Amino acid sequence: MATASVAFKSREDHRKQLELEEARKAGLAPAEVDEDGKEINPHIPQYMSSAPWYLNAERPSLKHQRKWKSDPNYTKSWYDRGAKIFQAEKYRKGACENCGAMTHDAKSCMERPRKKGAKWTNMHIAPDEKIESFELDYDGKRDRWNGYDASTYARVIERYEARDEARRKFLKEQQLKKLEEKNSKNDGEIEGEDSDEDDDDDDDDALKVDEAKVDESKQMDFAKVEKRVRTTGGGSTGTVRNLRIREDTAKYLLNLDVNSAYYDPKTRSMREDPLPDADPNEKFYEGDNQYRMSGQALEFKQLNIHAWEAFDKGQDIHMQAAPSQAELLYKNYKVIKEKLKSKTKDTIMEKYGNAATEEEIPMELLLGQSERQVEYDRAGRLIKGMETSLPKSKYEEDVFINNHTTVWGSWWKDHQWGYKCCKQTIRNSYCTGAAGIEAAEAATDLMKANIARKVSSEDAPAPAEEKKLATWGTEVPEDLVLDEKLLTEALKKEDERRREEKDERKRKYNVRWNDEVTAEEMEAYRMKKVHHDDPMKDFIN
């Protein structure tokens, strides 16, 4: 048996502890209790997660394993929405430049941007917000209703109650109106009233339908859970629909071909027609798509499409949230569309007329046939009768403009249309006749001759003469006369230039450049030039 190990100061303390435990077992000493006032079983260690099966323990201790005390650092409170703590009277340094609050800056300010902020006007200083920070525990971070005020739901209840009250008031007014109409009828129309009583009763019942829907006695069954049944239409419902007669042939037995319409055993649906080639008058089942594409199902689909398109265009409409509103808007849309369509039709008929209301065209003109007899010979010439005239086009034909004798497009050359009479390719040009054709041909021949002459001149280009200055070449002409004085100055300048090249420190800061070279300077350059092939080049200086 496991026992709690306790350290004792001496053997005497250990002996006293054993005697106390023996006395407690015999009932001679009071039992030891914990912090909650419950008796502690000495045979169960306090660190065990569960008591052994052979011990009759009331409760085990799991203080070291589970979080049995709430952590005081965590909280379940929430932000105090809209709370203000201090209202300043003038702008403070470091506050928001827009509203003047100290708890945020101008970038994160939620107030409308002022034309001149509180920093410059020193007026209308906004109060400081209450800034709170919470350290939520694991459950608090994931609590979706944390901070929700249940009292706000009272506004939702009030809105629905006001709507129901308005509905009841409207129905009551309608009933009173019907009763007043009945009482206002003359006594001589009693027989007519007897025949209309049934219609009036039906109207009264229709008016009471909405009131019956909101009756509290009817709403008691809203929370009733019914068995959900899978149907052929798909989805789940509380009622069983589309139950067939058991004597009828099952839909999957109508056509036993494996390539016929697919039958889904889970939803008991067969969308395609199992017998597409059979006589429609003899078939009682044409597939589930027949119900989806006919009757009210098709109208419901069109209603859904209209709701989606209206929502995409900015209309506040939702088919599932407000089906009555969506249906009413769809009806108004169809009425407006029909009016617009008829208005457009009337406008077109007023402008262009209506050929359907005019007199019918004779069959001879409609089919291009007649009983007149016309005979031709083998060459196709007319012998007897009158030849049928060819129908003319609705477009203008054989209209000649600008003195032309042919129409535009009667001539074609070099991928261009033109007039055959003058061979011009400009549509609005004036006809020049044969003289214009001759002038155009002469201009064309002249252009070809000029092109040929230019090509021949380009084939043999004239040699270009190279003009070189005598002083820049290697050979000096015999008639060249040099000025001795200028040559001496040029030699001195060349020596100075060479010294500057050897020693960069003698180079002046402002450099003057002159690209005009005289004959004397060129001669000085030749005289001072180092010839690398000269064997005596090292002994010159």
Query: Overall mean pLDDT score?
Result: 76
The 3D shape can be described as flat
Give the N-terminus to C-terminus distance in angstroms: 122 Å
Main sheet properties? 2 strands, antiparallel
Portion in helices: 25-40%
Could you name the ranges where pLDDT drops below 50 across 5 or more consecutive residues? Answer: 1-6, 209-229, 467-471
Order of helical and strand elements: HEHEHHHEEHHHHEEEEHHH
Tell me the quaternary state: single chain
Q: What is the count of DSSP helices, taking H or I runs of 4+ residues?
A: 12
Task: Report the structural category.
Answer: mainly alpha
Radius of gyration: 57 Å
* Overall strand count: 8
With strands numbered from the N-terminus, the spatial order across the biggest sheet is 1-2
Q: Beta fraction of the residues?
A: under 5%
Task: Offer a quick outline of the entry.
The chain has twelve helices and eight strands. Strands 1-2 form a two-stranded antiparallel sheet. A two-stranded antiparallel sheet has the order 3-4. Strands 5-6 form a two-stranded antiparallel sheet. The chain has 541 residues and is mainly alpha-helical.
